[in-house]
Design goal:
Blueprint: E1 2-8, E2 15-21, E3 41-42, E4 45-50, E5 53-60, E6 67-71
Parallel strand pairs: 2-3
Antiparallel strand pairs: 1-2, 4-5, 5-6
The protein binds zinc ion.
Zinc ion (ZN) binds near residues 64 and 66.
């Protein structure tokens, strides 16, 4: 499962896209191959999570490279 969201940078006020690949359970049977999106910033650090879905992350802005820390609005908690 992959999260793809947008975030308004707190430094340059531009919206950028970020993504995060949620680690899968080894027992899930099969592995899905994810296509890594271009022009998107990968989440580098997850501060908190629920069932491996991040709820608070840090990610660099793709415009100004500012490190943003923010809460993720998890709408779908199933992995
Ligand atoms: Zn920025």
């Amino acid at each position: 499962m992959m999260l793809e969201e947008k975030h308004l940078c707190e430094n340059c006020n531009k919206e950028f896209e970020w993504y995060y690949i949620v680690p899968q359970h080894m027992s899930s049977g099969h592995f899905k191959t994810h296509v890594i999106p271009r022009n998107k910033s990968e989440v580098k650090h997850v501060n908190a999570h629920i069932n491996k879905v991040p709820t608070n992350v840090t990610v660099h802005c793709s415009n100004c490279d500012h490190l943003n820390t923010f809460d993720v609005d998890v709408k779908n908690g199933t992995v």
